[in-house]
Amino acid sequence: xxxxxxxxxxxxxxxxxxxxxxxxxxxxxxxxxxxxxxxxxxxxxxxxxxxxxxxxxxxxxxxxxxxxxxxxxxxxxxxxxxxxxxxxxxxxxxxxxxxxxxxxxxxxxxxxxxxxxxxxxxxxxxxxxxxxxxxxxxxxxxxxxxxxxxxxxxxxxxxxxxxxxxxxxxxxxxxxxxxxxxxxxxxxxxxxxxxxxxxxxxxxxxxxxxxxxxxxxxxxxxxxxxxxxxxxxxxxxxxxxxxxxxxxxxxxxxxxxxxxxxxxxxxxxxxxx
Length: 273
Fold this sequence. Notes:
Elements: H1 2-23, E1 26-27, H2 28-35, H3 39-51, E2 55-58, E3 61-64, H4 75-79, H5 83-94, E4 102-105, H6 109-118, E5 125-128, H7 131-142, E6 150-153, E7 157-158, E8 164-165, H8 167-174, E9 180-183, E10 187-189, E11 193-196, H9 199-210, E12 215-218, E13 230-233, E14 240-244, H10 249-256, E15 261-265
Parallel strand pairs: 4-5, 4-9, 5-6, 9-12, 12-14, 14-15
Antiparallel strand pairs: 1-3, 2-3, 7-8, 10-11, 11-13
């Protein structure tokens, strides 16, 4: 029996390592669902893989050891993570937008989810450095659902997450002013603030923050405690953080000490609409 248990653990860890390498990172909660084991079992597996140098543990999961803080997963890899949370965050964040506003959306899978809700809001001016976000509005307009929205794509050099960054994007953003900025982030923490693995994207995001009257961060609970290579804003610069209700109470209490407003998007079963 002991031999079988050891064999099963080895097989499970091999599957986990394959997922880490294939997708550029995994979350504990995803692995528990996929492998039908407890959080504690997955955490022990990740500890074992980390001890042999196969992965590096990060908040809520693991990434390939050679990439760590500088690792930037591609859009497709990130788009499969926390799908329900992102949808509820997008729904909650969209309610902050009124017709006729000038808004900005940074790159990211959560801002991409938000864009799909914003096609229902009329007469917006949307500035974005996300190719994916711009495509959402373009597709809606071609289908006659754009609501008179004007979209400005900044230009720049494309990152693995399909954001446009660099001097061209930075100059365009610095010349504009937004009522609302919806900002995705690789991670956020009291010590490092908002951070990203991409140095050029960090600079572009700094320009977004400087040009916005109100800064709204859209990021699920797994981003809390994650630190990327470069900080682009402190938590005190955030007016509103929209996240999901799975954020631990202790983390929520800490976040409220820094950000002006914390909005917890309800779980689907909790919504009354």
